[in-house]
Design goal:
Nucleotidyltransferase, domain 5, globular, five-stranded mixed beta sheet, single chain, alpha/beta
């Protein structure tokens, strides 16, 4: 009989619940997005996000169960993101998970959001499974991390961003170019019409380190706009925006791909796993597939952004090891790998 885990995810602006069987089969996956709510502000407003989670959490959980065609008695455990993330948002999900687990007498599993992103790679749906040890590149709006994963439940943090995460830099540069929010898809779309060699933007290699830095790149994009007397990019200056977007994207991808492949070869892993919202960028996927001598895998596009299926999958592997969280488990907004 399969082990079914209900996953709950509310770390940022997605209210999500999913049922996953045996850590690899998605039975249901419900996501209530707030992107349209926050788009008018050009970024996430934490107070608004947490209030929207309160409105959505119960209907989303109910929808996950009904879509899966199961009842509470069919579940074996509840997995919930406890951090990192926004404090108010995390509290909604964790307290909902505690209430359900206590009422239904189910085991509770607090999950690291970054680790959950990695497990989106176990939800391919085509019977493909990652091989360990693997090198994991997690790239999202809040994180850019290189993780060595020798085995399930063991993670060695090799590198992180020292300032802006890749996704954050995409958002901020898109705002400079007035391309809209979220910035990742907007930059990617504009870059398709641009010349990446017209404005050679810098790359922060941070020699001798697996860390990343994208703040300087973002600032260089801003100065390029200002130096061309376009501090407020006209809506009709499509070509200029496209060229900056293409140059910016190329710089980010060069650094991410080069440092990831270098670390993977050094650590002697079997393959590279990508995850996180920025991993949905088709150009990043194409470049790393072309340049990597090692097999590369990334989740389906829908599972790159925040979702609860990855939380449930991660929870399954902790569940099988006999791990359980206590009722006094609290959220840890700055939860890291150490």
């Amino acid at each position: 009989m399969s082990v079914k885990i209900l996953g709950i995810e509310t770390s940022c602006d997605e209210t999500a619940a999913a049922v996953v069987a045996d850590g690899m089969q998605i039975v249901s996956n419900i996501v209530a997005s707030q992107v349209d709510i926050h788009a008018r502000y050009g970024g996430i407003i934490p107070e608004i996000a947490s209030r929207q989670h309160l409105l959505s959490i119960i209907p989303v959980i109910q929808s996950a169960l009904s879509t899966a065609g199961i009842s509470w008695t069919d579940l074996d455990g509840i997995a919930v993101t406890r951090g990192p993330g926004l404090s108010g948002s995390l509290l909604v999900g964790v307290n909902a998970a505690k209430a359900v687990a206590l009422a239904q007498n189910l085991p509770l599993l607090g999950i690291n959001h970054l680790e959950a992103h990695i497990y989106a790679n176990w939800l391919d749906g085509n019977g493909w499974l990652p091989e360990l040890p693997a090198l994991c590149l997690i790239i999202s709006g809040g994180h850019s991390d290189l993780i060595l994963m020798p085995e399930h439940g063991r993670h060695i943090h090799l590198g992180r961003t020292r300032d802006d995460a890749a996704g954050e830099a995409f958002d901020k540069t898109a705002r400079i170019l007035q391309l809209g929010y979220p910035g990742g898809p907007a930059i990617e779309k504009a870059a398709q019409e641009g010349n990446p060699g017209l404005f050679p933007l810098p790359r922060a290699w941070l020699r001798g380190s697996d860390d990343f830095s994208f703040s300087g790149l973002k600032t260089a994009a801003l100065h390029t706009v200002e130096n061309n007397n376009l501090s407020s990019v006209p809506e009709n200056n499509r070509e200029f925006s496209a060229n900056i977007a293409a140059s910016f994207q190329k710089s980010v991808i060069d650094v991410l791909v080069t440092k990831t492949i270098r670390a993977a070869q050094r650590e002697g892993v079997k393959q590279i796993l990508l995850s996180g919202g920025v991993a949905a960028n088709k150009t990043i996927r194409q470049v790393i597939l072309e340049r990597s001598p090692l097999p590369v895998h990334f989740p389906p596009l829908a599972l790159c952004t925040d979702n609860a299926a990855m939380v449930a999958s991660c929870g399954y592997f902790h569940f099988c090891k006999g791990e359980r969280s206590n009722w006094d488990m609290d959220v840890i907004p700055t939860l890291s790998w150490n």
